[in-house]
Amino acid sequence: MRKTFLLLFAFSTLLIKAQQKITFGYDNAGNQINRVLCVNCSAKTAVANEEVLVSETEIFSRDDFFSYYPNPVREELYLSWNTLNDKKINLISVYSILGQQVAVYDVSKINSLSISFQNFPSGVYLVLADFSNGEEQTIKIIKQ
């Protein structure tokens, strides 16, 4: 009985497949520019077999620079950006996961912002950047 169980266990491990794989793409400076999520395929064949679920998810264009830290945040979130001439960030809004706007900042004349999260309850927040050309980008922030 014991040998049968061990043999069955050994064969069952051969049938188990690896978890989802994520591969990342980088530019020449070493910045992450895209990610590819693949299910039940090897990283080398992910694009060739078109088994990709999510690909080339860029937060901002390659010419834009946007950084934020720390995430998860405890007290204060620091944002910094540098965008193209035609494309400027006008507003930064903070929303709770329920969709309630908890803060809004006019940032049309600055390129960095510090947001205090001290009075916000723990949870997930969305930081929305409104661009002058009508585009919007969202960042998910976790408050501990």
Could you characterize the architecture of this molecule?
- The structure is a single chain.
- By secondary structure, the chain is mostly beta strands.
- The protein has a domain at 66-143: Macroglobulin (MG2) domain (Immunoglobulin-like).
- The chain contains 1 helix and 10 strands; from the N terminus they run H-E-E-E-E-E-E-E-E-E-E.
- It has one helix spanning 2-15, and strands at 21-26, 32-38, 52-54, 65-69, 76-82, 89-96, 101-106, 112-116, 123-131, 136-143.
- The strands form 3 sheets. The protein has a 4-stranded antiparallel β-sheet, with no helix packed on it. The protein has a 3-stranded antiparallel β-sheet with strand order 1-2-3, with no helix packed on it. A 3-stranded antiparallel β-sheet has the order 4-5-8, with no helix packed on it.
- Strand 1 (21-26) and strand 2 (32-38) form a beta hairpin.
- The model is unreliable at 43-59 (pLDDT under 50).
Q: What's a quick, concise take on this entry?
A:
It contains one helix and ten strands; from the N terminus they run αββββββββββ. By secondary structure, the chain is mainly β.
Q: What's the layout of helices and strands?
A:
Layout: H1 2-15, E1 21-26, E2 32-38, E3 52-54, E4 65-69, E5 76-82, E6 89-96, E7 101-106, E8 112-116, E9 123-131, E10 136-143
